[in-house]
Structure formats: structure tokens, C-alpha cells
Amino acid sequence: MNDQVENAAAEEEVSYGNGRPVHFEIHAADPARAVAFYVEVFGWQSEDWTEYAGMPYFGLRTGEGPGIDGAIMQRHGDNPEPGAAVGGGVLTMGVASFDEAAERILAAGGTLAMPKYALPGMAWQGYFLDTENNVFGIHEPDPEAK
Fold first, then answer.
1. Helices and strands (H, E) in the chain, number of each type
2. What is the distance between the alpha carbons of residues 44 and 104, in angstroms, rounded to a whole number?
3. Structural domains of the chain sorted by starting position, each given as residue range(s) with its CATH number in brackets
4. Residue 31 backbone dihedrals phi, psi, to 5 degrees
5. Which of 35, 61, 82, 97 could be 45's S-S partner, Cβ–Cβ 3.0 to 4.6 Å?
6. 101 vs 104, 106, 121, 123, CA distance in Å?
7. Confidence (pLDDT) at 7
8. pLDDT at 1
9. Please, are residues 138 and 105 in contact by the beta-carbon 8 Å criterion?
10. Chunked in runs of 10, what are the mean pLDDT values of the chain (146 residues)?
11. CB 128 within 8 Å of CB 103
12. Res 15: pLDDT
């Protein structure tokens, strides 16, 4: 097994008995393109697990400390149609600056799905589509948001 999988399993902070999410998968028609998008936008690290998984599958390390790591895998079927309802969970990434993250997303080939809006007294939130038409959100904590 690779280091990322072994390290994740060895972390004492992970509790597998309480239903807390411990892994995510992003489905992509072009996994390499999707990996490039998330690495460019969020600075994630990627490792090719294709041989281990038996299909295009790329492990993702989203950062140090508490959080969830995941993977990008080959989509089996058509990409979601633009404007279609979300057919699964939606990842929302915390960012230091909503506006700067939005610029990186658009420059890397993402598109706006729902503009920035205030969660009053908590944060700025918005949603985008990645290069594979998957919806994801970004969230900038800000107690002054209104």
C-alpha cells in the first residue's frame, strides 16, 4: 500500500465508528484534467493509484492537519448535464479569500454555478463547476458577512 493510505489509516484522530466522512471521490471523464484543476486551484497533492485500483484513480492529499483526503476516479457514464440537479454530495472547500479562490477557479477552467453570497455572521459561500461539470463550493469564514 502507498504512504498516503498507510498514513491516513495510522492517524489517531480518525474515528471510524461514528459515521464521520473519512474519504471522498470525485468522478471525472478525464481524471488527469480534473487532477490538474484541483492541484492548480487548491494546491492539493496527487498520487497515481491506477495500478492499485485497476482503473484511472488518483489519490488526493488536501493538506496537513485535520481534514478529509480523497481521490479522483474515472467516471462510468456521462458527465452531468449543465443545469441538472446535483446527483450526489457536494464538497465545499474552506478558503482564506473567496475572491482570490474564485479567480483561480475561473482561470483553471471552472465556471460559476452560484455567485458569492453571505451566510450572515458566518461566512461567504458560493458554488462552481469543475472541468468535469461537478459542483463544488468554496467557503470563506467571515463573522462580518451580511
1. 4, 8
2. 13
3. 1-13+21-76 (3.10.180.10), 90-146 (3.10.180.10)
4. -55, -40
5. 61
6. 5, 9, 21, 14
7. 53
8. 45
9. yes
10. 51 67 94 98 98 96 94 93 86 97 98 97 97 96 97
11. no
12. 63
Q: Which of 96, 77, 110, 92 is nearest to 140 (CA)?
A: 96
pLDDT in the model for residue 19? 83
CA–CA distances in Å: residue 31 to residues 18, 42, 59: 31, 16, 11
Give the whole-angstrom CA distance, residue 127 versus residue 125. 7
pTM of the model: 0.85
CA–CA distances in Å: residue 112 to residues 51, 72, 80: 34, 21, 15
Q: Distance between CA 91 and CA 72 in Å, rounded?
A: 13
The pLDDT of residue 30: 96
Extract the C-alpha cell encoding 20: 464521520
Q: How far is Cα 104 from Cα 41, in angstroms, rounded to an integer? A: 5
